[in-house]
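re: ur question from yesterday

yeah so i grabbed the chain u mentioned. its 193 aa long if i counted rite. heres the sequnce exactly as i have it in my notes:
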Amino acid sequence: MRFYLLLLLFIPVPLFAQNDSSFLRLKKEAEIEAIQTPDTSTLLRLKKTISHDTIQYKFFESKGVCMDSAADIQLFFKTYEWAGTRYRYGNAAKQKGTDCSGFVGAIYKDVYGINLSRSSAGIWPQCKAVEKKDLREGDILFFKIKKNRISHVGLYLGNNKFIHAAVLGGVIISDLDEPYYKKYFYMGGRIEK
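ran it thru and got these structure tokens back, copy pasting raw so excuse formatting
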């Protein structure tokens, strides 16, 4: 019996390491290709590097987000790296935890090279308002939860899904039609990249 338990403890490690290295290989290929051909056809070539067998593809698919139609695959790579990070107010680190504005700010800096304000309300003036029906992936979502003021942000991924740092659950993917988020959703915001 002890032999089987020990065997189970060691089996997942090589499988995860193998999948993780294939993710890093895909990520590296995608970044190199983007640098070599910085034009609109790059997006098509980037999509071809994403295998439906990767952990990342399966993760987003299980959450109702299709990476096949992604316009900015780097956004998905970076947000996947943060998925599961615990919530910690006033922080913006994968290892120690993050709050919502810290998470959105870190993604925008890594993916687009844009520095955002450190508070949810502070990010709003940096954006152009976008109605819910006009949202595109990478748009910032604003929620008025506390005293009718902007107090929460997330990143739109498509198909009505967004990723954010929630007090309960840390960095997770949620749906804008969930009653809680539907009630408090204020507006989308777009920063020209």
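noticed a couple things. The beta strands are 92-93, 97-98, 128-130, 140-146, 149-158, 161-166, 170-175, 185-190. also The chain is about 45% helix and 20% strand.
anyway ttyl
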